[in-house]
């Protein structure tokens, strides 16, 4: 397999864990260095794939600039994550992801199907021999709104998927409202790590902006204990 670089994800639980997320847990994920999703041998691992569908914007809101809208989900277990899920044994990673997106958000695969080239990063959860693949799909704002609306017609809406969530990608003048408050929520698996990685990789937010929001979110969590 391709090489690794170590990373630790805080306050998370595995994607296939159907119990409530443990807000005090710590799990180790390893980022695969290879950018190609097909470099990971599927037969040796269980796999899940998720996708960040987003659009660029330039809107003003209470003195803040909203640079992008990102589609996330509020899940049945009370955690926040990205649409997607487990890949079945007879599927490629992309096939499984497209099936999950069609099921969860009624994605129109004729217009918006995910391709190998949309892959951003993969992480391995070593304790369970489980690989989580992450893709990104950039669309227009009009298409983003269409995709969100279609999600209301999904067969899993109101059961597995309780609603869509757009993260506030700004920090308000009080230093807490906006992204820091959002990051203080509970996320499934490594969804928070995936979000932060994508924000920097896609140059939606700077590394400094991301780090400041993360630090403030940790303060918020301590205050809420």
Question: How would you characterize this protein structure?
Answer:
This is U8 snoRNA-decapping enzyme. Residues 44-184 form the Nudix hydrolase domain. Its cofactor is Co(2+). It comes from Octopus sinensis. The chain is 28% helix and 30% strand. Strands 1, 2, 3, 4, 5, 6, 7, 8 and 9 form a 9-stranded mixed sheet that branches. Residues 1-25 have low confidence and may be disordered. Strand 3 (46-61) and strand 4 (64-75) form a beta hairpin. It has 225 residues and is an alpha+beta fold. The chain has a domain at 28-33 and 43-168: Nucleoside Triphosphate Pyrophosphohydrolase (Alpha-Beta Complex).
Task: Give the arrangement of secondary structure elements.
Layout: E1 4-10, E2 26-32, E3 46-61, E4 64-75, E5 80-81, E6 84-86, H1 93-105, H2 109-112, E7 119-125, E8 130-138, H3 141-151, E9 161-165, H4 179-183, H5 191-201, H6 207-224
CATH class call of the domain at 28-33 and 43-168: Alpha Beta
Protein structure class: alpha+beta
- Report the sheet-strand fraction: 25-35%
Order of helices and strands: EEEEEEHHEEHEHHH
Poorly predicted runs of 5 or more residues: 1-25
Per CATH, what is the topology of the domain at 28-33 and 43-168? Nucleoside Triphosphate Pyrophosphohydrolase
The overall average pLDDT, rounded, is 84
Number of strands: 9
Largest sheet: 9 strands, mixed
Write a brief caption for the model.
This protein has 225 residues and is α+β, with helices and mostly antiparallel strands.
